[in-house]
Amino acid sequence: MKAIIAATIIGVIMMFASILSNNKSGIVSLATVLFFFLFGINIWEVYESINATGVAAPAYLNNMMSLDSFAIWFSMLMSGCALLYILLLGKEIAKVGKHVGEYFALIAFIMVGIYLLAGYSNMLMLFIGIEILSIPQYILAGSDKRNLKSTEASLKYFLMGSFSTGILLMGIAMLYGATGSFDIINFRMLQTDALNPLALSGILFLIIGLGFKVSAAPMHMWTPDVYDGSPTPFTAFMSTIVKAGVFVAFLRLFHASFGNLTNHWMMIVAVITATTLFIGNITAVFQQSVKRMLAYSSIAQAGFMLFAILSVNATAWQGIVIYAVAYSVATIGMFAVLIKLKDYTYDGFNGLAKKEPALAFFTTIFLMSLAGIPLTGGFMAKYFVLLAAVQQGQVMWLVIFALIMAAVSVYYYFKVIIAMYFKTGEAELNHEVTGYDKLMLGITCLLVILIGLMPQLLLNL
Amino acid sequence: MNTLMLAVEQSTPINYLPVVLQLLVAIGFVIFMVGVTHLLGPKRKTADKLINFESGIPQVGNARQPMAIKYFLVAILFVLFDVEVIFFYPYAINFKELGTEGFMAVLMFVAFFLCGFIYIIKKGALEWEE
Amino acid sequence: MDLFEAIFWFLTAMAIGSALGVILSRNPINSVLFLIATFFAISGHYILMNAQFLAIVNIIVYAGAIMVLFLFVIMLMNLNADVEPQKSRLVQFAGIISGGILFLLILAALRDMKAAGVIEKTATDIGLMKNLGKTLFQNYVFPFEISSVLFLSAMIGAMVIGKKETLVIDKN
What we know:
heterotrimer; A: mainly alpha; 17 helices; C: mainly alpha; Four Helix Bundle (Hemerythrin (Met), subunit A)
């Protein structure tokens, strides 16, 4: 709860900072300090939740939220990722446009949405959370106003995003019609034998609405254009932390409420997962631009995260946490490298190893993590979600399919590594890589490897 | 009198029948009058009479010009504050019963809007730029 | 069929008819006018359900303010040239087929739906402004407060997207 309040206030402070000051680097420093503060508040909340068990929720919450230890822990991890994101890309955010303070304010508001999605227990909060998450994203996607592609990304995202929100609302309304309640706990009374068709349609609509937000195929059409067109620093944010937040909302709803109805929705989600993995990985192979490849790869990674939705057990919850953090950290790092380059195509990476050996090494680690090579965080993440699916035991064919697709993904991730190390060329940099950049990228790299070696650090459950 | 009071307190949809009737009468009157003038009036159509009226000046170009976005900015800000005001109605009715807690809730909501308002003014969103 | 039911069916037909008008009419201005008619029909439904506050809000905010925004957006676009690319027949056909299948499926599923026992057949007084206010400011006070974050982001969005950018020299 403290984190929600703090993030809101940080957003307001950043709004006012943009009025009071034109100094871009000053605003970036202020934002960094405030996000440190936010992370600190999150840690404080985790500390409190460990020490004081069974504290009644504040009365004003009125069962709207259930801020259990998982919600608080996940919020803390996401704040950590956001802090890392600001530390790595804060300077780049300042270069996007004129309204620097506003960008940070919007990011803080998105964090509010993520906290809501991590701990909601009422469909109304799910809706408000999704909206608070989405609307700032539409704005961030279009923040580079002189760039036509950015404007196009914003408009496409807005139109399709509002449409999917409409479908989500339809689903919520249908479930309300079936149960007479918005409380996700009350959806448990839906019994398998006497299931209302209204509830079934509602669940279907929710799968579509939430599937759109996590860019699961066939609701992924917006993803490449939006991620490619948006300013790169905001793509890094949208494709990682925000997506992870929506996944937790997805997981919470389908495990807590519809966990006993798996035979009704399991097959649908399994087919969506297979399609997502297939389309994401196969299309990524044919991309020329690394940024667009990363957009498709984010679809592919969403396919793996969908395994956590599929397998209704405790391992899935652990899997989604590890996957969210490992994927976010590696992708943010990857985007931080990408933004340094002038040319976003594969050829732009040619000969980077000679020019900037440290940068090339960090890129290799990030890409290996995304591909799921052992000893990196990405491996542990994939291991946990697939383990959850194996424990569930109903979708073994899908697990095997996912392994094949992971092998395919190695191809396009390694294409970048090959370009950096084995192709000759002059990788042109946008600007000098400073010592600070290298330090931050090194820390990110260490985090990736640390998650790979000790994933249990991310689990408090 | 007694039954009337009762009906007002219960406030059922049937209370809106007068409103509906008034609406019907208003719309019906307009349709009737327009229809009657159309039927009774003489019709002389010439090119000069069918032209769009532009204060007596010969019309130039097309009316469908793209509009500047500054109108839109004002309009969207209007909608936001319009929605804020809407929330006051249910509060005003329950003002006494909700007590301090309700007052604090509304105060906080308004405070957020005030922040937004100051932000908008300071940013010059309402200044008309040429 | 009593008066209540007659009005209900009239409003339903009006809502669906004007909603179809929105998507079928060629002129965008007509679409907006149809949308206003739809909103009025839905407001009528709200009044039938005894939710007068919602009915009024629907008219003030949607039929009033948001429709003006819609008109602004339409006027922002250049309506002279017919630049809208025509979708190919195949895509149109696929869209109609898939949409129709979804519609039929849901219709078939809902046909033998049992009313969940929670749906009120007659008007209740939960939608009256007094009761609604109590619910809003007591049970739903947290979402109410949080929605202000949404408003703030909308304000920022209007500023960031809508404000003309004058070039400023970066101080760095």
